[in-house]
Amino acid sequence: MPKLWTTTIEAHRRGVREAILDTTAALVAEHGLRAVTMSQIAEHAGIGRATLYKYFPDVDAILLAWHEQQISTHLEQLAEIRDRTGDPGKRLDAVLEAYAHIQHQRMRHRHERHGAELAAFLHRDEHLAPTQHRLHAMMRDLLADAAKSGDIRDDVAPEELAGYCLHALDGAGSLPSRAAVRRLVALTLAGLRPPR
């Protein structure tokens, strides 16, 4: 098969998949998790039902794929922020701040119509485990580098500090403002500083 043809087919498939994911997320936000059908998704995405079933077996599978895409995008953002800064301490500060703001934004979206129902479905442990491991590993590595450079305490294992940071900053989702998020980040960072 010619390369141009292969590239065109792959681009088409990506486009169809994106349309399915975006359409499903919009329909669920509007009507609720259990009110959306495969027929509605196909109609609103502008594809046939047979085509839709070639990509996904059911609405749940579409939503899980959409959520995985959202989380992967957040991890890519955090990695990009991490890679922009050379100094380990500043890199850690920037990533923790970005993570807290992502958590804050996610909670705001959960409060939208039908958000709680969707959040409960998407945040089941078995679905998030691989992504949580990637996030935890990224945090652990950042903390290990910052400990080596003397920017944070080295009397607690980076593995434990990663858990501390992630659990503390998950609280950003319930805060009322960006200023409150910044204060939470500052408090979390204070807990990482070397003891006197």
Description:
It contains 9 helices and no strands. It has 196 residues and is an all-alpha fold. It folds into 2 domains: 1-57, Homeodomain-like (Arc Repressor Mutant, subunit A, Orthogonal Bundle); 58-196, Tetracycline Repressor, domain 2, CATH 1.10.357. The longest helix is centred in the N-terminal third of the chain and has 29 residues, at 3-31. The protein is elongated.
Please write out the topology.
Layout: H1 3-31, H2 38-45, H3 49-55, H4 59-84, H5 88-110, H6 115-122, H7 125-148, H8 158-170, H9 178-192
Helix pairs in contact: 1-2, 1-4, 2-3, 4-5, 4-7, 5-7, 5-9, 7-8, 8-9
Q: Any low-confidence stretches, pLDDT <50, length ≥5?
A: none
The figure for the number of domains is 2
Distance between the termini: 66 Å
H and E order: HHHHHHHHH
Shape: elongated
Largest sheet: none
What's the CATH C level of the largest domain? Mainly Alpha
Q: What is the arithmetic mean of pLDDT?
A: 87
Identify the CATH homologous superfamily of the largest domain: Tetracycline Repressor, domain 2
Task: Name the assembly state.
Answer: single chain
**Structural Rg:** 20 Å
How is the CATH topology of the largest domain named? Answer: Tetracycline Repressor, domain 2
| Helix coverage percent | over 70%
Number of E-state strands: 0
In short:
The chain has 196 residues and is mainly α. The protein folds into 2 domains: 1-57, Orthogonal Bundle (Arc Repressor Mutant, subunit A), CATH 1.10.10.60; 58-196, Orthogonal Bundle (Tetracycline Repressor, domain 2). The protein is 78% helix and 0% strand.
